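Next up, sample data.

:::
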Amino acid sequence: MATAALLALALLAADPAAPEVRMGVALPAPGQGPQATKLNVAMAEKEPLPPGAPADDYGLVAWCYGALQGHMALFDKVKPDLNALPDPDPRATAAADAEMLEAGRQYLNLYSRALKAAEKGNPKAVLVPATTAMAQGRSIWEKADVAEPKTRMWSWVMWVLPGRCELSAERLYEKSMLAGQSAGVNMRTAPAPRLTREEQEKERQGQP
């Protein structure tokens, strides 16, 4: 199975205008992506909103959660088509896939923590229920889910995780913690992740 990085390189060589690929191979761990340098922060802030995504930080983070969750859930469906492609180093590919999924789970936890902090310490930031925005994010995969297998595979491979997702999550968390502390809310302990143990296990197994 060729990694998405190899697949993306092939596409980029054929099409210089193809979008940058960040998903499908190891994602940077939270804190090492858009926030790693001031330049990357500035670039993330200038990114256009994903079509249909809320503009506020809380709504956008929930949307990003749903979009990333939907992308991870498609992995098992696209894997057979990826496996059919030439792969010079299957062992390295398997390791990259595992790293990608782990990075995805870290991002989901980052988003969960930010959403929970807002709900606890800064409820004014909650303009739309998280479940609504999450469903909007997951909905971007509805067409790919029922598409012809190769079309679905390339849709999955070429998806770009918006840099604004991490930036908004970190900003939402920081502002919510400060707002909660100012309001006298006990924010000394980090809010628990939104996912239950059962939900986390489903994420590990790639289940929707």
